[in-house]
Amino acid sequence: MRGYKKPTVSIIGASGYSGAELSGMIARHPSVKLENLYAYSQAGNKVSDIYPALNLDMTYRAYEGVPESDICFLALPHGEALKLVPELLDNGKMVIDLSGDFRLKNPAEHLTYYKQEKPADAWMTYAMPELFHDEISQAKAASNPGCYATSIILGLAPVCRPPMSCGTVTSVSCSALSGLSGAGRSAKTELSFSEMNNNIRAYKVGMHQHTPEILQALGTSATSPSFGFAFTPMIAPLTRGIYTVLNISLEKQLPVSEIKEHYRQFYRSAPFVRICSNPPEVLHVAHTNFCDIHVTQSAQDGSLIVITAIDNLVKGAAGQAVQNMNIMLGYDETLGIM
């Protein structure tokens, strides 16, 4: 289009796994222009030296203040975005944050689960497109959901949000396996090949930081939950992917065919959610923005079993962030992703 100027993008925290995934997606996006890549630890290094596969002729820069770009993505460790976002918003930037800094409305829950204090107003639109599309379309600042949270919320939302209410669910037991990239790029002995090959390890059992985020998005809270919720996260010897199994007890036993149809209708306008006849596989969603969901029922007690699979770096991070950017800019939400 003659005279059209593409919105420009800066990525702050671009050298981590999520930041690198995002860099590649923005560089390929047809309707925005990648302008700056900021990275504290890699400042001065060429992107091609750190991530040759990205094929980007750019150099990481040190962050020295508000960039000229129209849109700023932040892919920083928890706590860092809190320091930068207020100034970005004051300067009229569109902001999409991939950390947990702005996800929780309740500062007390944030302190409990993130071990950090934050101001009461440090909250931004919780940007899960399948649930909050209209709110995202009006937002100038968006908080991208966590990876585990995405896989779990999408599996639970049809039975926890209207037209079915949380009162229908009495308890949820959730186990989720994550690929090693979910822990970030920093070297850790316990995540090395020799420690994790042929191994699975549970961690943060009963106290994972995505728990209050999940319950908040489902219309309840970790402080006063309306149904029992037990979450066991685990690390598996995968590079990428999250595989989640949800065992859901309902007040009223419903035919599984009715529940499956409800899931299909709930996600009928969601281009990146696929309701599958068979249990999903991580390989089927790797390097995509899809969430695959399978719904079935226990033959013993009729309880609901929902299985989901996503790529933690795409639908669980960078892909969902680009999806949110598209919605905020009024583009088709699949642009540059599908």
Write up what this structure looks like.
With 338 residues, the chain is α/β, with parallel strands linked by helices. It has two domains: 8-145 and 316-329, Rossmann fold, CATH 3.40.50; 148-312, Dihydrodipicolinate Reductase, domain 2. Helix content is 30%, strand content 21%. It contains eleven helices and 13 strands. The chain has helices at residues 17-28, 47-50, 81-90, 107-114, 129-137, 147-160, 193-196, 210-217, 256-266, 282-285, 314-329; strands spanning 8-12, 33-38, 71-74, 94-97, 125-126, 141-143, 169-178, 201-202, 228-235, 242-250, 273-276, 291-297, 304-310. A seven-stranded mixed β-sheet has the order 8-9-7-10-13-12-11. Strands 2-1-3-4-6-5 form a six-stranded parallel β-sheet, sandwiched between helices. Helix 1 packs across helix 11. The chain is globular and about 60 Å long. It starts with 7 loop residues before the first strand and ends in a 9-residue tail after the last helix. The mean pLDDT is 94.
- Percent of residues in helices comes to 25-40%
Q: What Rg do the Cα atoms give?
A: 20 Å
Strand content: 15-25%
Count of domains: 2
What average pLDDT do the residues reach?
94
CATH topology of the largest domain: Dihydrodipicolinate Reductase, domain 2
Q: Helical element count?
A: 11
Protein structure class: alpha/beta
The CATH homologous superfamily of the largest domain: Dihydrodipicolinate Reductase, domain 2
Main beta sheet, described?
Answer: 7 strands, mixed
* Architecture (CATH level 2) name of the largest domain: 2-Layer Sandwich
